[in-house]
Amino acid sequence: MLPDESVNDMYGRLNVIVNEIKGLGGSYTDLEIAQKMLRALPTKYETLVTLLINSDMSRMTPAALLGKINTNDMYKAKKQELEEASPSSKKTIALKTEVEDKGKSRVDEDKSDDLDDEIALLAKRFNELLGRRKGEGNNFNSYKRRDRRGSHKRSLGNLRCFD
């Protein structure tokens, strides 16, 4: 296989050579043609070649072998396209800088980290407050509420007890 040649072009050239040999009276079996195709593949197909050699090659036609190679190429191209498109695969780094201010050096922290810490602390305190307030709602007593407003003391004098 030539360096800048595709697998389909190599297969086309191989078919031309095989047809010329058949025209001269020689013959090759499908297995022999498939083996020659595998030997001609570059090293980037090494894993695929190993898998195909270990499979049952006796029933494989050169066209079927070409289909498997093309399927492998399409799978790798799609996988690479997805990896390039996903933002999580891109690596990002954060660098700290030193700034000298009137002879003093200080390290500038990333302000977004500070903001994230403050938001996390606020959320934690809010959840604690909600946890405390849950217990208050369970012990509801209307007399306590009136007592806070001052109207309950006035209404106690109007109550009569019937035993």
Topology:
Elements: H1 7-23, H2 30-40, H3 46-54, H4 62-85, E1 97-101, E2 104-108, H5 111-138, H6 142-149, H7 151-156
Antiparallel strand pairs: 1-2
Shape: elongated
Q: Note the gap between the termini.
A: 110 Å
Strand-and-helix sequence, N→C? HHHHEEHHH
Identify the strand order in the major beta sheet: 1-2
Question: What is the number of strand segments?
Answer: 2
Q: What fraction strand?
A: 5-15%
Summarize the structure.
The chain is mainly alpha-helical. Helices cover 63% and strands 6% of the residues.
Question: Can you walk through the features of this model?
Answer:
With about 160 residues, the protein is mostly helical. It has seven helices and two strands, in the order H-H-H-H-E-E-H-H-H. A two-stranded antiparallel sheet has the order 1-2. The protein starts with 6 loop residues before the first helix and ends in a 7-residue tail after the last helix.
